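2024-03-11 09:14:02 DEBUG pipeline.ingest accepted 1 chain
2024-03-11 09:14:02 DEBUG pipeline.ingest length=256
2024-03-11 09:14:03 DEBUG pipeline.predict start
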Amino acid sequence: MTIQSLLLAAILFFNLFDLASVSWAQSAASGLFAEANELYRRGEYEEARNKYLQITADGVRDPRLFYNLGNASFKESRLGDAIVWYERAVQLDPRDDDIRANLRFAHQVKKDREPSIEQNALLRALEFAYLFPTVNELSVSCALFLCAVWIVASLRWLRSRSNSWQAWTLLSCASLSILTSILLASRIYDLEEKKFAIVTVQEAMARSGPGSGQTPVFVLHEGTKIEIDRAEGSWYLIRLPNGSAGWMSDVSITII
């Protein structure tokens, strides 16, 4: 990292989420989480990171855990790993300001920069609305609206007579259920079908084919976000926002 990056890192304050609010506070993971937080506060970042990783190994998926893991990784100068965990935290909680702020900062100090894309106010508003609800919230909303549709439809059938408020309620709930279903399907597609990864080594070589003997195409540096096109053995065909593509070994990247 450059001197400028180190200075920025010294200025940035990384908050830890408190143990009291975690949904799995009564589980065995809560003890490890508390220990890891205490180690982090004492400046023992590598030890804290290892304990956070123990929790993830047990299958715990929580944005607060991933956020703290990103912080500990950043403090240990593991920029690529930090971005991986921040990205995973954002997927679970896209509205959290602390997570998004630290992710933006981590992208600012990496070597490879994505070209900035100017967006007008309408596109920014649409993107915000699209990312505002989490996948879980969309799932619950879709289920509730569909239940409302069936309830109102059942009432209309039982009464066998026209009722304006029931008709408008049915139409509104049906429309909302369709909208949330479309949003849910789109978000699930983005999460399941579109695979992204982060370069987690200082320097990674993209090659013309899946193998270390293939022709070098370009070099990427730690922290760079790439899209995974397909896999062939232990090699991935990756793509950059500018359309450049190449094959990269799985030892150089971590899938988000």
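2024-03-11 09:14:41 DEBUG pipeline.report Strands lie at 195-199, 203-207, 216-221, 225-232, 235-239, 245-249, 253-255.
2024-03-11 09:14:41 DEBUG pipeline.predict end
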